[in-house]
């Protein structure tokens, strides 16, 4: 093997690019492999959203010019019957993804990162149990590159993760379609009728509408597993909106919806972004939540490379710092959200009518801090109303039981993640406590996903 790098990163998506930028700034030599042409990245998505405070948090200059499509000031959450809504002030930037990715790549290149496009990671080269390099196919055929650290940022199919042998610390099971949401979006032009400003979100359809390019409007839904069902559900969602339009273009993709691997590291290897299923459990968005992990991973990788300790022990602080913070919040939400979104439209309408459940503060806390927050006084006031809802048939007892059960499972998961093992030696007993809770959460989510797919088949 000829060339040698401190780190080889597989995938030039937002995660791989941001991670390599930060690691290179810390003084290490990084190579990013990308199987597609770099200029094509982001085109299949088009417009995308990031909350404005994320730019300062991750030290990325704000977008300007054509990259910035709209600065949206509010998010409105609508009840299924459209009678109730909660509007919160939350600045979100609507941007052109290819332009954003090009700019991000520019920062990484300026700090010394090398990108190799149309170069596919094929497999790992191991020496004495450690990754010592990678086998790739690119310009000039197949060849090998040496590296000290290998990073999987290859998106949800996890090209590196799934090719590794499973160990106590490394899960290599492939992502099943039933653990994904198909995101289907149409951009409408020639709009007729009233529409609300900002981002508009509909829990029941996991649907939304928001400004797109120019005067166009994006109308999208998320739907488990099935592409056909996603289109049908989209048609049904569109028919409930108070405005109409002509479809200018449409696009579709998938986002992962499952728990992350229980460990994000093993000897000489790290995983992040969609490859580790780090998407926000309430929206499926994954850019800023991926950045949060990448920033920790880059700090830990820099220290491990400087100490020349690329063992799982040396890389373990990435697990600890990620899972005790964002990972714990996401564990709670990933376990609890399916119980919430599986409520019937009538039940969600009823909950919207109860003061203190869907609130402005709650919307901001969920989107910015990933917390489900409730005011204890308001919650206490809500109890008799909820009991009244059950008595009058507006809330099914089974739904309330499921919410209570999954609330308890979710809270236990959060506590366990907040106490993520400090050292790999105590990981096995922690994993034994976590796995049964995830099995319960997965059962509820899969039951709900299957029901939805049957309903919209
Ligand atoms: C329709 C749609 C709309 C979305 N909108 C938003 C939004 O508004 N806001 C938001 O935050 N998130 C959004 N998301 C989610 C967001 O796009 C992802 O969470 C994010 O792009 C993940 O970035 P990543 O770098 O982890 O993975 P990816 O973007 O998937 O990047 C992985 C890269 O690895 C490359 N790769 C894979 N295998 C190999 C290999 N063997 N060798 C070399 N390269 C390889 C791939 O080509 C790819 O470029 C949306 C997703 C979809 C589908």
Explain this structure:
- The protein is an alpha/beta fold and 457 residues long.
- The chain has three domains: 4-42 and 97-175 and 258-310, FAD/NAD(P)-binding domain; 65-95 and 178-256, D-Amino Acid Oxidase, Chain A, domain 2; 331-456, no CATH class.
- The protein has eleven helices and 16 strands.
- The protein has helices spanning 14-25, 53-57, 97-110, 227-240, 287-307, 312-341, 345-353, 360-369, 376-391, 397-418, 427-456; strands at 4-10, 30-33, 47-51, 68-78, 85-96, 114-116, 120-127, 130-138, 141-152, 180-193, 199-202, 207-211, 217-224, 243-256, 265-266, 269-271.
- Strands 1, 2, 6, 7, 8, 9, 15 and 16 form an eight-stranded mixed beta sheet that branches. Strands 3-5-4-11-12-13-10-14 form an eight-stranded mixed beta sheet.
- β12 and β13 (217-224) form a beta hairpin.
- α6 runs parallel beside α11 (427-456).
- The mean pLDDT is 95.
- Bound molecules: flavin-adenine dinucleotide.
- Flavin-adenine dinucleotide binds at residues 10-16, 33-36, 41, 45, 48-50, 120-121, 153-155, 159, 183, 185, 251, 253-255, 273-275, 279, 285-288, 290.
């Amino acid at each position: 093997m000829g060339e040698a790098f401190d780190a080889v990163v597989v995938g030039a998506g937002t995660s791989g690019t941001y991670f390599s930028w930060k690691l290179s700034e810390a003084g290490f030599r990084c190579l990013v492999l990308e199987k597609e042409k770099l200029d094509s990245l982001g085109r299949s998505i088009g417009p995308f959203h990031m909350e404005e405070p994320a730019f300062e948090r991750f030290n990325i200059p704000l977008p300007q010019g054509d990259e910035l499509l709209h600065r949206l000031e509010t998010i409105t959450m609508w009840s299924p019957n459209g009678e109730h809504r909660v509007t919160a002030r939350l600045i979100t930037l609507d941007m052109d993804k290819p332009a954003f990715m090009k700019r991000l790549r520019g920062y990484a290149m300026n700090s010394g990162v090398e990108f190799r496009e149309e170069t596919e990671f094929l497999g790992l080269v191991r020496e004495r149990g450690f990754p010592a390099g990678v086998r790739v196919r690119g310009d000039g055929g197949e060849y090998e590159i040496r590296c000290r650290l290998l990073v999987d940022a290859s998106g949800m199919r996890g090209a590196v993760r799934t090719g590794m042998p499973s160990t106590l610390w490394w899960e290599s099971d492939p992502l099943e379609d039933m653990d994904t949401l198909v995101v289907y979006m149409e951009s409408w032009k020639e709009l007729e009728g009233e529409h609300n400003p900002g981002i508009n979100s509909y829990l029941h359809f996991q649907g939304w509408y928001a400004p797109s390019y120019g005067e166009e409007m994006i109308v999208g839904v998320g739907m488990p597993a099935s592409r056909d069902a996603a289109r049908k559900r989209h048609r049904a969602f569109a028919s409930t909106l108070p405005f109409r339009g002509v479809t200018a273009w449409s696009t579709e993709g998938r986002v992962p919806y499952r728990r992350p691997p229980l460990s994000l590291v093993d000897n000489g290897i790290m995983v992040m972004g969609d490859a580790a299923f780090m998407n926000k459990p309430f929206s499926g968005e994954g850019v800023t939540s991926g950045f949060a992990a990448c920033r920790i991973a880059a700090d830990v990788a820099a220290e491990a490379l400087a100490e020349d300790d690329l063992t799982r022990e040396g890389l373990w602080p990435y697990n600890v710092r990620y899972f005790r913070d964002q990972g714990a919040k996401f564990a709670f939400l990933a376990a609890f959200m399916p119980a919430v979104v599986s409520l019937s439209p009538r039940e969600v309408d009823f909950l919207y009518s109860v003061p203190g459940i869907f609130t402005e503060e709650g919307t901001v806390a969920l989107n910015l801090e990933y917390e489900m927050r409730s005011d204890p006084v308001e919650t206490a006031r809500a109890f008799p109303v909820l009991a009244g809802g059950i008595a009058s048939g507006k809330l099914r007892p089974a739904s309330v039981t499921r919410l209570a059960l999954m609330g308890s499972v979710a809270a236990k998961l959060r506590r366990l993640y907040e106490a993520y093992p400090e050292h790999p030696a105590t990981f096995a007993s922690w994993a034994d406590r976590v796995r049964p809770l995830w099995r319960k959460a997965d059962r509820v989510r899969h039951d709900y996903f299957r029901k939805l797919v049957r309903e919209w088949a």
